[in-house]
Amino acid sequence: VAAHPQQRVSDLLAQHAQRIASLAKALRDEPGFEPSRHDDIWLLRYCLSYPDTASASRAAARGLSWRLKNQQDGVTRRVMALPIDAWPGYLECVPYLGLHVFMAEDAALLVALLVLRRCQFREMAAKVPTQTIIAFLTHLKEYTFAVTDAATRRSGVLHKTLRINLCAGISREIVSPYLWMATARANSGSATAFPQLLHAELHADPPPLLQLLFNRLVKPLLPPKTVEKMALVSTGADGDASAVVGGLLGEANVPDVLGGRLLLGSGLLSGSLREQDEARSAEAGAASPPCEPAPPSRPPYTDALVQHHEPPPSAGPVHSSPGQSGSARLLLGLGAAVALAVATAVFAPRDGGGVARGSFAR
User: Fold this and answer.
1) How far apart are the first and last CA of the chain?
2) I want to staple 102 with a disulfide (CB 3.0 to 4.6 A). Which of 157, 255, 270, 321 is the partner?
């Protein structure tokens, strides 16, 4: 996996100025397009993701339509203004997710590290309403894009994301096929709403059988540009995971779970992101009138994304049957191998890219 080139935004804007102007003209009559918000940097990500103005315009129009339909701009304002524990579903979902998010400023990368052995997707699906889970994942995905965009504008360097999935300890018992399918359905319309977000995706220590399935069945279906962004690595004394991550992020940003010096702690956010969240929490507390009850822990949330994804009332608790078919087990295992369970639903599945096919096309 190549290192993030950390391109200067000013250089990219100058290089793609003509295409950016053409794209703005093509979108000027699209519902939801506002030049004051959808500026040159927003347009630039589509120009970098698609080979020509026509395909970039179609993708941007679909992304705008999805955002408008699901009131995503309201979600953006919410995640950038509220502390994370005030998001819908945070308190219910986080105990089941071994997820850590931090910003490696020197590398211009937002890192999402998923420790699968600490995840309990099946138990979460059984105990937390699907609507609540999807609401939280929607906010987390929007936060990922908003924070990356804010860092790009603040630093003048194009920021992207790095996903790291630690697969050691993954088992069929922790994964919920129902949750996987429900979140995939809920996010299917967001395919072009998050362009130029992913730099690379690493999968550490996937079981040998799942590596074989990925190499034989999944990899041939992915476009070359997508394959270049994915890598299988290993941990341990002779593993290359720490070196690969160090090469991408710098030695100081290698997480402790990979043998590095960066202490992630127990929360979802680490480092500067946690500090920013604590500041938002302090501001929210200071804004509350004295001697009055605290505001609700979560604001109302009626995003259309989360409708129609509840299991039927007669279905009982949500977990897979021990007697599921061999094909279902194969699909489940393959999904775990390439982090296409909850991890991919969180961080923008099919979120735009150089070619308009494949779950990881950027």
Assistant:
1) 15
2) 270
Angle between helices 177-187 and 130-155 (to 10 degrees): 50
Cα separation, 186 vs 207, whole angstroms: 29
Q: Per mean pLDDT, which range of 164-178, 222-236, 252-266, 296-310 is the poorest? A: 296-310
Contact 89, 124 (CB under 8 A): no
Is the pLDDT reported for residue 153 higher than 90? yes
pLDDT of residue 65: 94
Give whole-number Cα distances, 230 to 157, 269, 336, in Å. Answer: 23, 24, 15
Q: What digits encode the pLDDT tens for the residues 246-297? A: 999 999 999 999 989 999 888 899 999 999 999 999 987 766 544 333 333 3
Q: At what angle do helices 40-49 and 17-27 cross, to 10 degrees?
A: 100
The residues, any chain, with a CB within 8 Å of residue 338's CB and separated by 6 or more, are: 203, 214, 218, 230, 344
6: left (phi > 0), else alpha (psi -120 to 50), else beta? left
Rounded mean pLDDT of 337-352?
38
Choose among 114, 135, 183, 167: nearest CA to 334.
Answer: 167
- The predicted model scores a pTM of 0.78
CB of 249 closer than 8 Å to CB of 3: no
Sole residue written with tokens 């929490």: 281
Tokens of 193: 């709403």
According to the model, what pLDDT value does residue 287 have?
A: 60
Would you say 185 and 309 are in contact if contact means Cβ atoms under 8 Å apart? yes
Question: What is the H or E stretch that residue 111 is in?
Answer: strand 109-115
CA torsion angle 202 176 148 225 (round to 10): 40
Q: Which residues have C-beta within 8 Å of that of residue 65, sequence separation ≥ 6?
A: 30, 31, 32
41-71 pLDDT, tens digit per residue, is 999 999 999 999 999 999 999 999 999 998 9
